[in-house]
Amino acid sequence: MSTAEPPLEPEEIWNSIRCDVEAEVRREPILASFLHATILKHTRLEDALSFHLASKLANPSLSSMLVRELIDDSLQAEPTISQAIIRDLMAVRERDPASHGFWQPFLYFKGFHAIQSHRVAHAIWLRERHSLAMYLQNRISEVFAVDIHPAAQIGTGILIDHGTSVVIGETAVVEDNVSMLHEVTLGGTGKSVGDRHPKIRRGVLIGAGAKVLGNIEVGEGAKIAASSVVLDPVPPHCTVAGVPARIVGRPEYDEPAREMNQSLTGRHDSGSGI
After folding, report:
1. What is the 3-state secondary structure (H, E, C) of the chain?
2. How far apart are CA 99 and CA 47, in angstroms?
3. CB of 185 closer than 8 Å to CB of 205
4. What pLDDT, in 10s, does the model give residues 90-111?
5. C-alpha distances out from residue 85 to 102, 112, 187, 249, Å
6. 67, 149, 185, 197: which could join 172 in a potential S-S bond, CB 3.0 to 4.6 Å?
7. Domain parsing of the chain, residue ranges
8. Phi, psi of 63 (to 5 degrees)
9. What are phi and psi of 229, to 5 degrees?
10. CATH of segment(s) 152-274
């Protein structure tokens, strides 16, 4: 694994976003009004994000002003959300080669938007305002095509690349530094009730179209190949592939989520089951 750069402070990331956006205003003046309203008129990253998400999630039943108040209230009540925003931004910048700076995912990447919106819905859910949290979930799904139950527990340093058609169920747990691509499902196996969704441990990489079903654990540092269907627990630091998924090797790195290597290279364990 390549040596990681020292982590940036929140102020450095915000200043980087503002600097890049100022340059974009000069390059693309047709977007000047949008960029000023969304970024340049704000003094904090959190204020810009609440404005931006509110403009996307609002509808005739819930004004952007009211949505923004909900977001701001959640950020104030749960200071850890601000830290998660920074870690998620850094995850996108580090792992997604389409991200040129922090400003692009902040403004345009709906996987990032969906995660931050979920964090707000989750904070509201924890305050027992379940109807409102479910309403926000519905709007998040409509706007970003990412359906995360507000009770699901999502860590930090998360990348949902592209985002479209990602589904994460009510009792799912996703730990820190996990990466997943579009059309991933962390779902149940049918009509079972209670704790029924997957537990994804730290550093896991889940390829596009993979389905992980049931109350099973995907161990730390595992890799799930694209389009696999995982029905059984996955040991830590194993690569699984197929329908149903079977162990086909081991990732080259301890946290494959950081490397985003979708191939099945690495140590090969032919014929292994899960």
Report:
1. CCCCCCCCCHHHHHHHHHHHHHHHHHHCHHHHHHHHHHHHCCCCHHHHHHHHHHHHHCECCECHHHHHHHHHHHHHHCCHHHHHHHHHHHHHHHHCCCCCCCHHHHHHCHHHHHHHHHHHHHHHHHCCCHHHHHHHHHHHHHHHCEEECCCCEECCCCEECCCCCEEECCCCEECCCCEECCCCEEECCCCCCCCCCCEECCCCEECCCCEEECCCEECCCCEECCCCEECCCECCCCEEECCCCEEEEECCCCCHHHHCCCCCCCEECCCCCC
2. 22
3. no
4. 999 999 999 999 999 999 999 9
5. 11, 9, 25, 33
6. 197
7. 1-145, 152-274
8. -70, 160
9. -120, 110
10. 2.160.10.10
Structure pTM? 0.93
Ranges in the chain, pLDDT < 50: 1-5, 270-271
Pair 170, 192: CB distance under 8 Å: no
Two structure tokens written together for 184: 């991933």
State which amino acid sits at residue 106.
F
End-to-end CA distance of the chain: 26
Which of 100, 105, 74 has its CA nearest to residue 87?
A: 105
For 181, other C-beta atoms within 10 Å of its C-beta total: 22
- Say how many CA atoms lie within 13 Å of 61 toward its Cβ: 5
Q: Does CATH place domain 1-145 in 3.40.50.150?
A: no
Exposure letters 106-122 (e unless 16+ CB within 10 A, then b): bbebbbbbbbbbbbbbb
